[in-house]
């Protein structure tokens, strides 16, 4: 009696086939529940014991739980349906849908795992904000490429001749490539900036007549906040083709300035001026004196050239030091009776 019932057919399937399919479905769900409640819990314990590990961490476990578990459910449903004889159209639809979902879940899981692992590694190794931002842009490009490959794989498995499709798009691709030369140039320049690192976020740079602090390095453009407040948007190609002066990386600033004294200054005073300037500059913190010389005879003054270094790249610090030097030189010259020169004219009249 039971055997006859099991052999009865409904919708082209025996009752036995339905029971087998249901058994596979239930057994599969039991395995998934065991995996989530036992195996994943043990992995979490290992993750807590090895909190510094990149391969075993909370983010990886969450990724498995959120993205890989749905794949297991999909496999169980797909396998259980394979024990049934379905309508050809329905069977084909299930195969197509299963392939698409399987590819999407796998690609999403792999991308999240690999990129997440790199981000964790770089967060420990790389402290530069610009590098992290640049890497996020690089990861976006990687995601686009991987998803394009996944789409081609899906199309190929669906029986669509990908090579024919690519060949048919060849002429159009060439036209698009020619039309987007500027975009591609900026993209390659982005990679050049990323790997060569001529500047980073928060660096103060000068490009031609433009100067300011780097705020953002994008795939196509870089944004700079100028001293007057407006934002400059410059293409990456223009940046890589320009001569960039990066003041943030300046360890010390070389300062050259000149001053003139009157021709009435006597020889002894002229000889004392370089010594006085050296003593003034050497007595100021974060400065390194280089030289001070009687440089030349000017039209209305005796010119001295002074060279010194300011330790660091802060412009305000340099200006404060230069101001202090100017004050002390003025004070010292007034004590010694040395006068600064200014444009004068002397008129000689001959009596005839």
Task: Walk me through what this model shows.
- It is a multi-pass membrane protein.
- Keywords: Cell membrane, Membrane, Transmembrane, Transmembrane helix.
- Belongs to the MscS (TC 1.A.23) family.
- One of its GO terms (biological process) is transmembrane transport.
- This is Mechanosensitive ion channel protein MscS.
- The longest helix has 38 residues, at 88-125.
- 59% of the residues lie in helices and 17% in strands.
- Helix 2 (15-49) packs antiparallel against helix 3 (58-81), helix 3 packs antiparallel against helix 4 (88-125) and helix 4 (88-125) runs antiparallel to helix 5.
- It folds into three domains: 2-125, no CATH class; 186-248, SH3 type barrels, CATH 2.30.30.60; 250-336, Alpha-Beta Plaits (2-Layer Sandwich), CATH 3.30.70.
- The chain is built from eleven helices and ten strands.
- The protein is rod-shaped.
- The model has no long low-confidence stretch (mean pLDDT 81).
- The strands form three sheets. Strands 6-5-4-3-7 form a five-stranded antiparallel beta sheet. Strands 8-10-9 form a three-stranded antiparallel beta sheet.
- The protein has 352 residues and is of the alpha+beta class.
- The chain has helices at residues 2-7, 15-49, 58-81, 88-125, 129-157, 162-168, 170-179, 181-196, 236-240, 267-282, 315-336, and strands spanning 9-10, 13-14, 204-207, 210-217, 221-226, 231-235, 244-246, 252-261, 287-297, 302-311.
């Amino acid at each position: 009696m039971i055997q006859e019932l099991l052999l009865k057919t409904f919708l082209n399937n025996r009752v036995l086939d339905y029971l087998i399919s249901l058994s596979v479905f239930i057994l599969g769900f039991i395995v998934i529940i065991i995996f989530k409640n036992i195996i994943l819990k043990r992995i979490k314990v290992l993750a807590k014991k090895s909190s510094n590990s990149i391969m075993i961490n909370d983010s990886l476990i969450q990724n498995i739980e959120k993205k890989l578990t749905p794949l297991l459910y999909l496999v169980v449903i797909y396998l259980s349906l394979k024990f049934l004889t379905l309508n050809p159209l329905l069977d084909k639809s299930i195969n197509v849908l299963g392939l698409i979902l399987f590819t999407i879940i796998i690609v999403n899981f792999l991308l999240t795992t690999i990129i997440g692992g790199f981000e964790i590694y770089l967060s420990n190794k790389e402290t530069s904000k610009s590098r992290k931002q640049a890497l996020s842009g690089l990861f976006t490009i990687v995601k686009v490429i991987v998803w394009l490959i996944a789409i081609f794989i899906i199309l190929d498995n669906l029986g669509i001749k990908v090579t024919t499709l690519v060949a048919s798009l060849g002429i159009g691709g060439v036209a698009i490539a020619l039309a987007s030369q500027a975009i591609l140039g900026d993209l390659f320049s982005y990679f050049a900036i990323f790997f060569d690192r001529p500047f980073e976020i928060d660096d103060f740079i000068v490009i031609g007549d433009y100067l300011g602090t780097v705020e953002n390095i994008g795939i196509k453009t870089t944004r700079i906040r100028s001293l007057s407040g407006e934002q400059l948007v410059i293409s990456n190609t223009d940046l890589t083709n320009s001569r960039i002066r990066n003041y943030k990386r300046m360890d010390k600033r070389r300062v050259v300035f000149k001053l003139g004294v009157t021709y009435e200054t006597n020889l002894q005073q002229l000889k004392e001026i370089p010594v006085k300037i050296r003593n003034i500059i050497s007595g100021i913190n974060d400065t390194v004196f280089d030289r001070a010389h009687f440089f030349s005879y000017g039209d209305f003054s005796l010119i001295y050239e002074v060279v010194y270094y300011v330790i660091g790249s802060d412009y305000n610090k340099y200006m404060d030091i230069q101001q202090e030097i100017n004050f002390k030189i003025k004070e010292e010259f007034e004590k010694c009776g040395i006068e600064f020169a200014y444009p004068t004219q002397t008129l000689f009249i001959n009596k005839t």
